[in-house]
Structures are given as structure tokens and as C-alpha cells.
Design goal:
Blueprint lengths: L1 E12 L2 E4 L4 E9 L2 E9 L4 H9 L4 E8 L4 E11 L4 E6 L7
Antiparallel strand pairs: 1-2, 1-3, 1-5, 3-4, 4-7, 5-6, 6-7
């Protein structure tokens, strides 16, 4: 398991793009039986409207761009699982995370 601190996250969903206003985000990459799975834990999301939207939306697939502390830009597709009670989200990766 590898963990990377993310400095910034931008998500695209449908017709809009939004940079997340957050306290922290960590990318976790798990390699198991030849497969590479990834997800992002996002904490301290200050955008209540965004959390409300994804909490009730039927379509939670997003395009993700993330910037790491060591200067890499990562891109991929994920599913946005909002946790309104904790102002957080889990972004579950779907397929390859380019740039890693």
C-alpha cells in the first residue's frame, strides 16, 4: 500500500468543473494479485452544496485531476461518495490513474 498527500483536487462532472475547497486529501494505492486499486480520502470539504449534491445524486462518476506534493499531475475517473456528517468524501478510483 502506498499513500500520497495531495495538494489540490479538481473534479469534473457533466458540464461543470470545480476545485475542491478542502483541508486535506490522501491518495491510497493498493496493489493486490496483479491489480492496482486506488482511492482518495478527502477531509474538511467546505462546500456543503457539493456534498449535498453527491449525497443524493444517482450519477456520482467524476473525472479527477490531482496534484501531488512532489509535482506530479494525476488524472483518472472515480466515484464520489459524500459523507456529509463528517464533511468528507471517498473518491473510489475506476480504472487507471494516469501520471502515477
Amino acid at each position: 500500500m502506498e499513500t500520497y498527500r495531495l495538494l489540490s483536487l479538481e473534479i469534473e462532472h457533466g458540464e461543470w468543473t470545480r476545485r475542491l475547497n478542502m483541508e486535506s486529501a490522501d491518495l491510497i494505492v493498493v496493489t493486490e494479485a496483479g491489480s492496482r486499486l486506488w482511492y482518495v480520502d478527502v477531509n474538511g470539504i467546505r462546500d456543503e452544496e457539493l456534498l449535498d449534491y453527491f449525497y443524493t445524486a444517482a450519477d456520482i462518476q467524476i473525472s479527477l485531476t490531482a496534484w501531488t506534493g512532489d509535482g506530479r499531475t494525476l488524472r483518472g475517473t472515480a466515484y464520489f461518495h459524500a459523507n456529509k456528517a463528517h464533511q468528507a468524501a471517498a473518491l473510489r478510483g475506476d480504472g487507471e490513474l494516469r501520471g502515477l
